[in-house]
Specification:
Blueprint: E1 17-24, E2 27-35, E3 40-45, E4 66-71, H1 90-104, E5 109-115, H2 116-127, E6 132-140, H3 145-152, H4 160-168, H5 178-186, H6 191-207, H7 238-255, H8 264-267, E7 277-282, H9 290-305, E8 314-318, H10 328-340
Parallel strand pairs: 3-4, 3-5, 5-6, 6-7, 7-8
Antiparallel strand pairs: 1-2, 2-4
Length: about 350
């Protein structure tokens, strides 16, 4: 793939259809479609878990070519209930995506996701490979305990000031187990307890996500959350929607080992052998360090090369990028991949 240095997203566009899909158990999932109604289906799988989707996520794809599908995973963004943890597991999210595919009448689609979005795209693909036309993945996360521990403690070696703010939010006596202490607060029904913890967790993650960090107040308009404020007590802004969703759901998944057996995604990668894939990784990604992407690429290549040397995933290391999709080199590579995948035949 020839990577262009062009970093501009496609112009803003509005959905031509949207709705709420009833998932049962009180969960309603927001979805939308934009671009070409008869085009090649592509689904944007957002990160977190719990971050929700935003309007700029539509803009990675040519609206003339793609049928662009964006959704909010259960408990996130515009899906309801916000932060809902009952029946919220990786298996439920995979089933939700399959229900959405069936609801929209899609036979095969390209899966586009970064960070937790790469995780969920892989989990879906390994469960439903026949419905996967291709993968564009960034900032690989494979649900292992070592990766969770890195997030909670290891990043402090690179971002000590951000980690101090994160850890010192808690009383001294609770800092021995950051996850348990934050989880207790984030599941507390009292907004005066859970919202300060949510903002602290979200600020820590945001501070570690870019090679050159931009404070939220100075972020480019396209990178600010577009979710409308919700009616839940303590949610005062679109930023609070994301902070509450991502912190509460991430903590829920972390304390439950991501509801995924250790190494399961690597062990089952043979299910995806032969499906085109582009994997994009920032060299200085501190949230999802590069060794995880390297492991995935080597395992996937070993399985795919047994079929054909032309089936191995493309792997692009961006030398001047961290974790965020918005960094220029990463965005250019993602845009190049969506252009390349126009040639896929559904």
């Amino acid at each position: 793939m020839q990577i262009s240095r062009r970093t501009a997203l496609y112009p803003s566009l509005e959905p031509y259809a949207s709705g709420m899909l009833d998932l049962g158990g009180g969960h309603q999932m927001y979805w939308e479609t934009s671009g070409n109604p008869d085009g090649q289906p592509v689904i944007f799988v957002h990160g977190g878990p719990g971050a929700g989707s935003h309007s700029h996520h539509r803009r990675y794809f040519s609206p003339k070519h793609y049928r662009i599908i964006v959704f909010d995973q259960r408990g996130a963004g515009r899906s309801t209930p916000l932060g809902g943890l009952i029946d919220n597991t990786t298996g439920h999210l995979v089933a939700d995506m399959e229900a959405l595919r069936d609801h929209l009448g899609v036979e095969r689609w390209v899966l586009f996701g970064g960070s937790w979005g790469s995780t969920l795209a892989l989990a879906y693909g390994e469960a439903h490979p026949k419905h996967c036309l291709g993968f564009i993945l960034r900032g690989i996360f494979l649900c292992r305990k070592s990766e969770i521990d890195w997030f909670l403690y290891g990043m402090g070696g690179i971002f000590p000031e951000a980690w101090r703010r994160f850890s010192e939010f808690l009383p001294v006596e609770e800092r021995g187990d950051l996850l348990a202490a934050y989880h207790r607060r984030l599941v507390d029904p009292d907004a005066s307890v859970h919202m300060p913890a949510a903002r602290s967790w979200s600020a820590y993650e945001g501070a570690c996500s870019s090679l050159r960090h931009t404070p939220p107040s100075e972020a480019a308009p396209d990178e600010k959350p577009k979710s409308e404020p919700k009616a839940e007590t303590g949610i005062k802004s679109g930023g609070d929607v994301m902070a509450f969703g991502i912190s509460r759901i991430e903590a829920h998944y972390f304390v439950n080992d991501m509801f995924t057996p250790e190494n399961a995604l690597l062990e089952n990668i043979g299910q995806l052998a032969g499906i085109p894939a582009v994997i994009i990784q920032g060299r200085y990604d501190m949230v999802c360090p590069i060794h995880t992407a390297d492991e995935l690429v080597r395992a996937w290549t070993a399985e795919a090369s047994a079929i054909s040397p032309t089936c191995v995933p493309e792997y692009h290391i961006i030398p001047d990028a961290g974790h965020a999709a918005s960094e220029p080199g990463t965005r250019a590579a993602l845009m190049a991949a969506t252009e390349q995948f126009k040639a896929l035949q559904g």
